[in-house]
Amino acid sequence: xxxxxxxxxxxxxxxxxxxxxxxxxxxxxxxxxxxxxxxxxxxxxxxxxxxxxxxxxxxxxxxxxxxxxxxxxxxxxxxxxxxxxxxxxxxxxxxxxxxxxxxxxxxxxxxxxxxxxxxxxxxxxxxxxxxxxxxxxxxxxxxxxxxxxxxxxxxxxxxxxxxxxxxxxxxxxxxxxxxxxxxxx
Length: 185
Description:
Elements: E1 81-85, E2 90-93, E3 97-100, E4 113-116, E5 129-134, E6 137-142, E7 149-152, E8 159-160, E9 167-169, E10 174-177, E11 180-184
Parallel strand pairs: 3-4
Antiparallel strand pairs: 1-2, 1-11, 3-5, 5-6, 6-9, 7-8, 7-10, 10-11
Keywords: Phosphoprotein
Organism: Cryobacterium gelidum
Pfam families: FHA
């Protein structure tokens, strides 16, 4: 309290607003579960992102040195896709990435591309959409964005994306991310 004189029955000081009767001990709340001492063990986070399963029989390591007459295993290669944005931006991608106003991967995630969308109205989420490839096909996944994502495949009706689910897109698909969009070629 500030030392101001208070009338009888006053609960709060008119000068500083502090409680007349409250003390540090009276402000403590009782533990709602005093007998609950369960310790929840946290599982270790994975060290990397596994974005797509690797089919059986595909080489997953590159030989460090092979004899010159020995055949080498062919690793799957990425296909190039071009995204043309409504902002005029064109981006060629070959791997995985994030799209948003300021896309930021989680600490345990690794992406090939981070694509920034200029959006003065901030309708696009900071990390709005994830994309990648599987068997030469392009896919997108909404990252629980604020305004959602809609895809328009050629010759089909518009479809709203369920957050966290991957949708394979043929070339020519239009992807609407809030007030902006891009087409996949």
